[in-house]
Amino acid sequence: MFDTLQDRLQSAFKNLRGKGRLSEADIDATAREIRVALLDADVAVPVVRDFIARIKERATGSEVSGALNPAQQVIKIVNEELVGILGGETRRIRFAKNPPTVIMLAGLQGAGKTTLAGKLGRWLKEQGKSPMLVAADLQRPNAVTQLQVVGEQAGVTVFAPEAGNGVGDPVKVARDAISEATRTLHDVVVVDTAGRLGIDAELMKQASDIRDAVQPDEVLFVIDAMIGQDAVQTAEAFLEGVDFTGVVLSKLDGDARGGAALSVRSVTGRPIMFASTGEKLTDFDVFHPDRMASRILD
Ligand code: GDP
């Protein structure tokens, strides 16, 4: 995913190698290269601006001393700042004290919500939970069937409206599912919701109605990491529409530039909680900011 960014950052650092001391001009030149590398990777402009300002300040400041050579010090600072924009600490799911924990998924159509429901179901089972997936996407033809298929692959119960694909009231389905989960002792409910190709008011209203009806413990906004500069606007619209509590980056296996991954936390203030890296149910993991930063700088 970050191959180009990785190469560009390495070449920015290369010019610092072998230098005994960094002049302001060295730092400026490196900062400029990092800036262009990030912008080319589609990282949002304000995020890049703040990032570069902090790098410059720290690289010229008093902390440049000690055992590391100047190039190593700059790499260390960039690493720490990358961890910072990716969210710092790993943020885990907050399970409800009184089960079931309700996790609602939101995002554009094609972002990877239904696939994620299966991945989350499998992962939750591995954590010793007894999850139930809920088909509250009654918009997209076949969404219910698709959820049933991933549920079966994951070995997880799926609650679907009796009428099947495309009919019924998603708010009622979500509400009924929680009663059913309580009755059948499922301790986590994952609610898949409808997406559209673009942001629209009706979609947002439906998602927010479901949110109000089921009072989820977590609302996960699923975003395709390949959508480039559109990521910021999409994330802001969903933040306003459903006030999500965490982000899931999907399609991190793609070869696009990955700016969404680096912008979405800073822009929304919400933590990235999971990453999806392929179509298989196992292509999924908890998101660790420090590991991602190391991968980018490796
Ligand atoms: P939804 O409309 O948000 O429910 O999106 P889907 O779950 O149906 O996913 C849309 C397409 O993206 C499907 O073809 C999925 O197989 C694919 N997909 C989902 N997650 C990933 C991922 O992490 N990597 C890749 N390469 N494809 C994915």
Automatic annotation (TrEMBL):
Molecular function in Gene Ontology: 7S RNA binding; GTP binding; GTPase activity
Transmembrane segments: none
Domain of life: Bacteria
Signal peptide coordinates: none
Any one GO BP annotation for this protein: SRP-dependent cotranslational protein targeting to membrane
Catalysis performed (reactions): GTP + H2O = GDP + phosphate + H(+)
Residues annotated as binding GTP: 107-114, 192-196, 250-253
Sequence ranges assigned to domain SRP54-type proteins GTP-binding in this UniProt record: 271-284
Enzyme nomenclature, EC number: 3.6.5.4
Cellular component aspect of the GO annotation: signal recognition particle
Main location: cytoplasm
Entry keyword set: Cytoplasm, GTP-binding, Hydrolase, Nucleotide-binding, Ribonucleoprotein, RNA-binding, Signal recognition particle
Record comment regarding domains: Composed of three domains: the N-terminal N domain, which is responsible for interactions with the ribosome, the central G domain, which binds GTP, and the C-terminal M domain, which binds the RNA and the signal sequence of the RNC.
Subunit structure: Part of the signal recognition particle protein translocation system, which is composed of SRP and FtsY.
Functional summary from the UniProt entry: Involved in targeting and insertion of nascent membrane proteins into the cytoplasmic membrane. Binds to the hydrophobic signal sequence of the ribosome-nascent chain (RNC) as it emerges from the ribosomes. The SRP-RNC complex is then targeted to the cytoplasmic membrane where it interacts with the SRP receptor FtsY.
Similarity-based family: Belongs to the GTP-binding SRP family. SRP54 subfamily.
This protein's name: Signal recognition particle protein
